[in-house]
Amino acid sequence: MELSTWGVFIWILIGFFACGCSSIEDFRQAFPIVEPDSGHTKLRLSREGLEAIERITTPIAAVAVIGPYRSGKSFLLNQLLSLSCYEGFGVGHMRDTKTKGIWVWGTPIKLMIDGVETSVLYLDTEGFESVGKSNVYDDRIFALAAVMSSVLIYNLPETIREADISRLSFAVELAEEFYGRVKGQDVAFEPAKLLWLIQRDFLQGKTVQEMVDEALQRVPNADGDRNIDQVNQIRESLAIMGDNSTAFSLPQPHLQRTKLCDMSDGELDPIYVKKRDQLKELVAAIIRPKVVQGKSLNGKEFVSFLEKILEALNKGEIPSTGSLVEVFNKGILERCMKLYNERMGELGYPLSEHSLQQVHDETRHEVMKVFDEQHFGHHHAKQSVDRLDEEILKVYKNFLMANEYQSSKLCEALYTRCDDLMDQLQVMKLPSMAKFNAGFLQCNQSFEEECVGPSKISYEQRMKKMLDKSQSLFIKEYNHRLFNWLVAFALVMVVVGRFVIKFILLEIAAWILFIFLETYTRMFWSAESLYYNPVWHFIVSTWEMLVYSPILDLDR
């Protein structure tokens, strides 16, 4: 009995793990992907609906239907999906809206688009202008649908109102920011195709496109009303976007709207059924996979894209294309800053200030060119450009500090080396002016060549003071030491002439030199005047020839 219990438990575990990580068993239903928060002003993601999208491995294209509440959006989507009201999206007959947030049909329609199998998602959105909601919330729903969809169906009953045109302000801003990029580049971002869907039985002798064009004509504004000006600007922008929008009319399916869910195609108006099928064909013809940064998105990538959008649109009090541009440019800014850091980091520091400034200017120009080629947005991109410039300047200041530190470190090392060399030359056993001058020149030359960067000027001044002081001290000590050397040399020659080689003339000459140095100079010349005498110069020249030459250095 105990063994059979364990067996059942193991089989339950195996079944649990075999089913995968998804908690959804039947995807043939509608799932929420975005829901309102408790205040009904901002949006949040719904994990359940995201699971349905993440499992898709093929490129995704999305069809979103937007419009006023109670305008038949959910019914329209069910018709496009060939589903009944009881199978597809929930349809509300009451005064409050049935759909909250944005919902997705869990089973995408498979289409071959340009030779690539594409999963087409159908999205139902919460209607505008329903009771108990803010305009900001409606704007966020509209903005999110406009960004994430490939085809945006604007479902309008009967006619196009001023408020309907005003609602498109975000779509216009979005198109102005992102539309018109060179296709095929790494950052191509195409806004949704706008499909005006007018549900009306009689067009009064006009085509639906003529009706839309007429609604988009500029309204006279003799009184200078600011609201009319704003709507007129939207009209003009929508007219310019003509190649990215189309219009379609759809008659009412039946007079008894509350019973539509219980009717088959045979009971619906034949003209409606025909037009509905034409609408399906139109959507299939204009839809394209969602492309971001030159790449079509699969399920997981689409969800990641959605998370980015929601982060941007929830920023601040109202959704703005500026925040959207900022989010999408974030990755490009990071890549540009990485490029700048890599270029500047490759340099061998320290550098002269002019060289570093020149490399900075060239690298900044290169980075700005890369950003200009890849960035999102037109108008709002200036904020990203300014931010990039600020970041570059901030990092450049760090490189300036690093360059100054390395310059100071190098110049200090050279200064210390020269100072040590000057100290060594001061205490030569056999003092040599030529050797001192050679060391002095070598030290000065190596410092001038090797010390670079912003610290060079200050260290040059220190170096000059140190060398001048060393030279002055050496010259003073040199004459005294040489005089003492000659006195000692004379005494040594006296000893050598008398006791070693016993050569009287050498001894006499040594005594004459000794007496001359010790008595005559003190009686007739001062020590300083001796050093300017031609005889002394001769003695110094002879000494230098004996003590130091490029070949022979007796001091060593």
From TrEMBL:
Transmembrane segments annotated in the record for this chain: 482-501, 508-525, 531-551
Family statement drawn from the similarity comment of this UniProt entry: Belongs to the TRAFAC class dynamin-like GTPase superfamily. GB1/RHD3 GTPase family.
InterPro entries: G_GB1_RHD3_dom, Guanylate-bd/ATL_C, Guanylate-bd_C_sf, Guanylate-bd_N, P-loop_NTPase
Domain GB1/RHD3-type G, residue spans: 57-177
Signal peptide positions (record): 1-23
Species whose genome carries this gene: Aquilegia coerulea (Rocky mountain columbine)
Protein name per UniProt: GB1/RHD3-type G domain-containing protein
Keywords, ordered alphabetically: GTP-binding, Hydrolase, Membrane, Nucleotide-binding, Signal, Transmembrane, Transmembrane helix
